[in-house]
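Let's practice the habit of predicting before peeking. Look at the sequence and jot down your guess about where helices and strands might fall. Then scroll down.
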Amino acid sequence: MTNALPISHQVLGLMARWQAFSEIQQRAFAFLAAEALATGSEFEDSANGAAGVLTRIADTGPGQNPEDLRSEVWGVVHRLQSADRSRQGLEQVASVLTMLTRQHEALEAETIALAHSLPTADGFTETCIGALTQSVSLGDWRRRLIDALHGRDPGPRAINTADDEELF
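Done guessing? Here is the structure:
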């Protein structure tokens, strides 16, 4: 299929797509950097909290009230669930970075093949954002990523410390 547009128009269209991708990429990197820092801190807090609870259990000895022991163990479970949620967040970061790399490779290939037919930039930003958000499986995380990629404030991270759902 040949493109009826002159090469200069094709180049301008390609440049527009590169600029749109670059803006999305910069927003994504800013969002991911903030997520990685916050997730690392949350993981450390959760692991330290679980270790602290286990130390208290060990220090109390065999004469401890069973209800107190149950409560302490439940505290460890909650801390470990929080640590697992933090790990899942880091997996989301890796997933988005992998998708950005694939999109970059596609644009690079398109640039190399400039002499051939090129699509227009219409809908390019939404297509990129759609592909990135499909690589994310956590709903709250996806919503915040979409806001960040559109240049909006993603809002605060959802920290669910009172989560009663047992994951183990």
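How did you do? The chain is about 75% helix and 0% strand.
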